[in-house]
């Protein structure tokens, strides 16, 4: 049986950084996708994003067994909050990791519904019939300024404050997690990305690349190429997933068993 999603993830150091602090995970069979962008001195950002992705991955995959993978909004929120506690405790247990944290965006799809959770400014998008929608809102100083009408979207893109977050995983003992649920249709494409993509590539251009009739691996590679050609000032991470089929159908043997039962019942009526 084909996977629920055709999925691929890629990460790239970019053209300006000396190390990659992004992490990701994707599983098209289970419909689990995660991207994190770490921050902190030395290698702490890399540690924070890796810890967060690993914990959320393990938490969610344990909820999936056999052919069924049902992850609720509460499960997703609990996973992110658990990651927050782990990163926060790690950051306060060793001086070299003090102040580390990470953005986190994760999505779970069962073929009919997509549930998304995020903290920070890594984003989640949905492409449907060639139209791109951003499903997340950045937790950043400039986005808060835009929301309050203090600056325009155009000004936000060039603001010196655009890297300042108002919320991150591991910055505080507890974290508020944004959760949203969205219907899915056959052919929908999901994109999770760190800001190394979204700060370098405009949404209209992301839409054009996602709309190409090619495999998701090529699409992911082309998104990273586009960000690097625009300057690649940060690490770039993308996860692209295209819904290949709907919710899993009941096994054929169950349907055949039901048919035989009906047939036996008809025979009994005929003979009586």
In short:
With 272 residues, the protein is α+β, with helices and mostly antiparallel strands. The protein has helices at 44-62, 73-93, 141-147, 153-156, 195-198, 203-210, 216-229, 252-271; strands at 5-12, 22-27, 32-39, 64-65, 68-69, 101-109, 113-119, 123-128, 131-134, 178-183, 189-193, 236-243.
How does this structure look, described?
By secondary structure, the protein is an alpha+beta fold. It has a single domain, classed as 4-Layer Sandwich (Phosphatase 2c, domain 1), CATH 3.60.40. Helix content is 36%, strand content 26%. It is built from eight helices and twelve strands. A five-stranded antiparallel beta sheet has the order 1-12-11-8-9. Strands 2-3-6-7-10 form a five-stranded antiparallel beta sheet, covered by helices on one side. Strands 4-5 form a two-stranded antiparallel sheet. A hairpin with a 3-residue loop joins strand 6 and strand 7. The radius of gyration is 21 Å and the shape is globular.
Fold topology:
Layout: E1 5-12, E2 22-27, E3 32-39, H1 44-62, E4 64-65, E5 68-69, H2 73-93, E6 101-109, E7 113-119, E8 123-128, E9 131-134, H3 141-147, H4 153-156, E10 178-183, E11 189-193, H5 195-198, H6 203-210, H7 216-229, E12 236-243, H8 252-271
Antiparallel strand pairs: 1-12, 2-3, 3-6, 4-5, 6-7, 7-10, 8-9, 8-11, 11-12
